[in-house]
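sry for the spam today, last one i promise. struct tokens for design, 335 residues
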């Protein structure tokens, strides 16, 4: 008889606050699944690493593991790195079957959570300006995957129209364009009296703190414009609900991905050379090295698309991102 357990796969961060927030999420999810044992692991920096989390479940008797990426959108981490780790683990332990779920994606629950974070920021700032006088700036992580980047733009558009802002801009913390400092400078010239900066991230970390710092710098340069910093998604109850949905999808066989727009499966304009690239994790050199300033690691370009000020995935934690299916962009091990 199969013994089913749940594995939450995070990216990991050099920032200890980000790791703590991820662990709060894991504890909350464990409460949502009282009949299923749950473990977690990280791709890099923090411990336990994913393999250690899988070991914990296997030692507890797991024969069927439902693994979900703790990330907002599907980019390289969810399409490559996590499936690579899970596939290798399943191959090494034939008594364990691993089913891999999809990323959180553009979801109505998360949009409502985002609305709440923005409204909380408006309430703190007071009612000096209406939404017609306000520009919303949605900041995504930034990825080398155009499909993941387009999801940030879709989220911004849905919030813009749904909440009635005068305008909305999209920018990214790294890898792609426009970058936060460029975007903040540009929107100050649009004539809006208030600019709300909303990092569409799951957790805090180096990148979120940098976004807020850039907002402070822009506000100092432009005292005529009010900059309001909204909180990221973090432990909003609807975030927990969305993760529960992703686990349930694996169990019911509704584990659907947007593979038609995946640059590894189809020839996306400007990314034609990525089709059929081998699925492999690129995080062995930073697996479990630890968090905090004593474990600083310069992520220069080393054969994959971690570069500039951010990493290549768009998602949660300090550096995170991504997908289900088989092989590249599919379900790891089995689905």
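last one done:
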């Amino acid at each position: 008889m199969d013994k089913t357990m749940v594995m939450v796969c995070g990216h990991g961060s050099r920032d200890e606050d980000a790791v703590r927030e991820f662990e709060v999420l894991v504890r909350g999810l464990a409460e949502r699944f009282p009949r299923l044992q749950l473990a977690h692991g990280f791709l890099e920096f923090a411990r336990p690493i994913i393999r250690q989390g899988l070991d914990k479940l296997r030692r507890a008797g797991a024969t069927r593991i439902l693994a979900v990426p703790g990330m907002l959108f599907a980019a390289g981490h969810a399409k490559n790195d996590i499936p690579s780790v899970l596939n290798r683990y399943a191959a090494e332990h034939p008594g364990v079957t691993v089913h891999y779920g999809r990323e959180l994606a553009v979801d109505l629950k998360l949009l409502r959570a985002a609305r709440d974070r923005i409204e909380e920021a408006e309430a703190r700032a007071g009612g000096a300006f209406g939404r017609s006088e306000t520009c919303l700036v949605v900041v995504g992580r930034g990825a080398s995957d155009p499909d993941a980047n387009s999801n940030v733009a879709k989220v911004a558009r849905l919030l813009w129209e749904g909440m009635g802002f005068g305008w909305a801009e999209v920018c990214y913390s790294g890898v792609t364009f426009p970058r936060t400092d460029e975007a903040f400078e540009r929107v100050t010239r649009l004539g809006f009296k208030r600019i709300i900066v909303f990092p569409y991230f799951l957790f805090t970390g180096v990148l979120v703190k940098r976004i807020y710092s850039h907002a402070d710098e822009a506000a100092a340069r432009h005292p005529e414009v009010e900059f309001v910093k909204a909180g990221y998604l973090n432990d909003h109850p609807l975030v927990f609900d969305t993760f529960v949905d992703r686990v349930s999808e694996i169990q019911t066989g509704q584990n659907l991905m947007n593979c038609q727009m995946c640059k590894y499966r189809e020839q996306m304009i400007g990314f034609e050379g990525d089709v059929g690239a081998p699925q492999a994790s690129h995080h062995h050199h930073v697996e479990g090295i630890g968090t905090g300033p004593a474990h600083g690691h310069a992520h220069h370009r080393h054969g994959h698309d971690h570069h500039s000020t951010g990493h290549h995935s768009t998602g949660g934690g300090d550096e995170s991102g991504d997908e289900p299916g088989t092989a590249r962009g599919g379900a790891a091990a089995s689905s």
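The chain has eight helices and eight strands. ok im logging off now
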